[in-house]
Amino acid sequence: MVAPLKAASSGGRLRALDGLRLIAALMVACYHYGGRGGEITHAWGASAAKVFPTLHTPFAYGCLGVQVFFVISGFVICMSGWGRTLRSFFASRAARLLPAYWVAVLLVTAVFALPVVVYEAVSPSDVLVNLTLLQQPLGVERVLGVDWTLWAEVRFYALFALCVVLPGASRRRVIMFCMGWILAAAIAQGAHQPLLDIVLMPEYAPFFVGGVGLYLVHRDRRDPYAWGIVGVSFLLGQHYAVRSLWNVSDPNAFAHRTSWGIIAVVAFGFVAVGAIALGRLDRVNWRWLTVAGALTYPFYLVHEHLGWVVVETLHRRLGVPSYGTFPLTIASMLTLAWLMNKLVEERLTPRLRKALAAPRG
Questions:
Q1: SS3 of 168, please?
Q2: What is the dihedral of CA 98, 92, 357, 167, to 10 degrees?
Q3: 3-state SS, residue 36
Q4: Do 26 and 330 form a contact (C-beta atoms < 8 A)?
Q5: Is 192 helix (H, G, I), strand (E, B) or coil?
Q6: Which residues contact 311 (CB under 8 A, 6 or more apart)?
Q7: Is 225 in contact with 175 (CB distance < 8 Å)?
Q8: Is 19:293 a contact under the CB 8 Å cutoff?
Q9: pTM for the full model?
Q10: Which candidate, 64, 22, 79, places its Cα nearest to that of 212?
Q11: Positive or negative, the Cα torsion across 41, 24, 147, 95?
Q12: Which region holds residue 159: left if phi is over 0, alpha if psi is between -120 and 50, else beta?
């Protein structure tokens, strides 16, 4: 077997992956601020198509940043779960997701409760359910619009933990997991059974599996099974992306994406993670990328809903032009993300991980 690829002089961390995370988050932010309708229309005082007459078309493809995130997640979860115990894996994932998420839920609820904010806050009971991350299957109103992706991530973690981490990660077991999930997801799609759809996530499985396959490529670039998994995942992933995002029926979506445009963005996600897996981007090793990676998750959590408030304040109340409001909103959300990372994640994540990973009698 070819020796595993190493990140260039960064303590084993793939800093290019951190940069790609931020790119994916900024793609989603562009979509939420200028590539769709809904509440952002109220914030701007007009449709984003009028506010950004040229940019609203490329911004509409920004929603595919979520699919890029899922490919990255597949890669990272396989890398971080390899050789871990189930307890350690659970502690790592819970400590990574929950502190910033809890703060984001409470922060958005508090801001929306202010008299000067026109957006309606979720009921106290629904806020409490949101803290469990189970609001979507329970049909409870969501505090954060982006948290549906976390529900997909949690289900992926559960499948990977049960099928790979619990029995012990190995190349053969990971390959069987990928092949089994892809096949089961296709069967679930044909069976039209809601329970199977919830568990197997046919629409998103190819992206998670593709990321896992790319981690196998990272370990051995000559592995034909790994390349086969990546190839099939891309072919299926672009199908689901085109089907769900081309000519969308949602009145708040801008239904002017082309199928080739969608395929190109999906291909970008796979190619970018693939380039990192193969070591082609090892030179992209700047220290600030680690900071960028740390800001991505809290930025992703708060940017949409609090962005509405910032856009409305700057653009409609203070009269800042749209070309100034847009970057200022991005900058303010990144600043808030930095504060959340420093004051919440750096303090609570290690403590929560230690408490959850500690052996119990």
A1: coil
A2: 130
A3: strand
A4: yes
A5: coil
A6: 33, 40, 43, 44, 325, 329
A7: yes
A8: yes
A9: 0.94
A10: 79
A11: negative
A12: alpha
Q: What one-letter code names the amino acid at 42?
A: H
Cβ-proximal residues to 128 (8 Å cutoff; 6+ apart), any chain: none
How much is the CA Rg of the chain, to the nearest whole Å? Answer: 20
Residue 11 has pLDDT above 50, yes or no: no
pLDDT tens readout for residues 91-123:
999 999 999 999 999 999 999 999 989 898 899
- One-character DSSP codes across 5-24: P--TTSTT--HHHHHHHHHH
pLDDT tens string 303-357:
999 999 999 999 999 999 999 999 999 999 999 999 999 999 999 999 999 999 9
d(CA 97, CA 93): 6
Tokens standing for residue 56: 């609203």
In Å, what is the CA distance from 136 to each residue of 106, 129, 140, 141? 17, 10, 6, 8
Q: Using CA atoms, how far apart are residues 297 and 96, in angstroms rounded to an integer? A: 9
Burial of 31 (0-12, 13-18, 19+ CB in 10 A): buried
Give the type of residue at 113.
Answer: A
Residue 232 sits at the vertex; the CA angle it makes with 226 and 233, to the nearest 5 degrees, is 85
Distance CA(95)–CA(8), nearest Å, equals 27
Instruction: Decide if 301 contacts 30 (C-beta within 8 A).
Output: no
Euclidean distance between CA atoms 183 and 192, whole angstroms: 15
Q: How many CA atoms lie within 13 A of 310 on its CB side?
A: 21
